[in-house]
């Protein structure tokens, strides 16, 4: 398999690794080996929910280069928009799913002298492929996991070099001192963070205060942590359609429901691929892609995450 | 379809390189209109198109054996034409996997790849090579993996590392330079190596191209055509060998220009590599002399018209100024003023 954009996968195994964490193993339902998985890569999975199609991106935890199977770990989220609940409640071994090819918005920087990874809870998943890649190659790294105490051993089977992994939880003597961590790193270290917004923001702030160059600091935010919001309407000017964007769906999902195609990749406001022109109305920007000036200009929107401040948006679609 | 190789033709010395009729007809002629227009002609590298060159993601043609030999000669004289920075080893293995799989699945009669876990056996019949090695173990190959596989494929190759929001040329096999690679230097960034192109730069084309390339997806390669003209079918036009080919430019006359002057079309493709997240950048050149091209009537007319409307800056940039008037005089006899259809296709099936 050399080129393509969609894969048909079969659920080969489902295993609960803790009361809230479920591991899903996929194999190719088509012919031949899968495209090689990558360090930091994710898969966009299409799930057929009861009312609507759900698309979520999950990090591949498989050893980079794996071609026999892909594995993801999905956390049960109480306020799930559907993907997490679907995977924990409905998905069965043998089910067939459509997914994207692996995509990568969070690849390690190969020229780094040392890699410092900070994960919050399930945010460890992209780093499981990092450590699978780095282990045994003499690559210098530290992985810091911040989680609840009872979860501290959940990921042990995927951590081949335990001496390079440090687990932190919310108790005296166990909290992560981010500024101290950043201070003791050699020059040309790269810092990666993946986790809930408060952790990401703390790490980014500490890096800025500590004088880390911007291009040595990398974060992958959870696209699906961005929940919905108030319902609004959108006019798709060129298609001549007016659509209702519900509280629990994204603008992009509402557009796709109407059969209008928007190119997209990360579905999390990071990649910039879904950039759409706004003809009228005021966007509420939730992406990490547009610059300050572009946001203020209000001429563009990333429909995968952003919504409307005004009750109506007119889009060039 | 079996390919009839021409193992003895040369790209230096007596220059016996020629295209068969079939090779002329499949030439990727790059001008879709009668006048010269700059366009960002980047498109998905999918199978099929106006030229059979697009039928397979990596194209092998009748010049395969001779071109690989010419590369070997160049590398023998100057091993520095292959270079890779140490952090590119993962990308090298990504490349060998992609290229061996492309060749063995599209040309099973020429190449085969057997895998037994990490133990791989590669068979290249045209070059008479059989090599077993362990995927991921450098010391099981006679040279670095990227050098190993690019010695066996036509065209130049680069690997671009993606970091700091830009792309860096951190590995390359460059023995068939066109303009882009004259200043080839490992480690240079995207803007540096595209810097000198006139016109295009003004339009901010490269900034946009860069943003676009940073988002290139695994499994969805892109392609574009570039072109220039070269005197004699010579691949090795590096600055170091200038004394061997530089003076050729002054030898063109109306009598010999049809045989000596070649249109050199470069098919550039861009592939996201999986493990390394780098971009593989094959630059495959196709050469045809004016005599060969004018055998396709549409191309004869079109080439005359395009070269007459070429902006001066571009002619200078491509190094055509000295011989352009002679080329136009030669081509004018093949342009009867008849209208042409748009698109690049030859529109004839035999010569
Ligand atoms: S799909 Fe990536 S920003 Fe919207």
TrEMBL record, chain A:
InterPro entries recorded: 2Fe-2S_ferredoxin-like_sf, 2Fe-2S_ferredoxin-type, 2Fe2S_fd_BS, Beta-grasp_dom_sf, Cbr1-like_FAD-bd_dom, FAD-bd_FR_type, FNR_nucleotide-bd, MRET
Organism: Zoogloea dura
Domain (FAD-binding FR-type): residue spans on this chain: 4-109
SUPFAM superfamilies noted in UniProt: 2Fe-2S ferredoxin-like, Ferredoxin reductase-like, C-terminal NADP-linked domain, Riboflavin synthase domain-like
UniProt KW keywords: 2Fe-2S, Flavoprotein, Iron, Iron-sulfur, Metal-binding, Oxidoreductase
Organism domain of life: Bacteria
Record protein name field: Oxidoreductase
GO molecular function (one): oxidoreductase activity
Record's keyword annotation contains Iron-sulfur: yes
One Pfam family hit: Fer2
Domain 2Fe-2S ferredoxin-type: 232-317
Xref: CDD domains: fer2 (cd00207), PDR_like (cd06185)
Automatic annotation (TrEMBL), chain B:
Name assigned to this protein: DUF3445 domain-containing protein
InterPro entries the record matches: HODM_asu-like
Superkingdom as given in the UniProt entry: Bacteria
Species, as recorded: Zoogloea dura
Pfam families xref list: HODM_asu-like
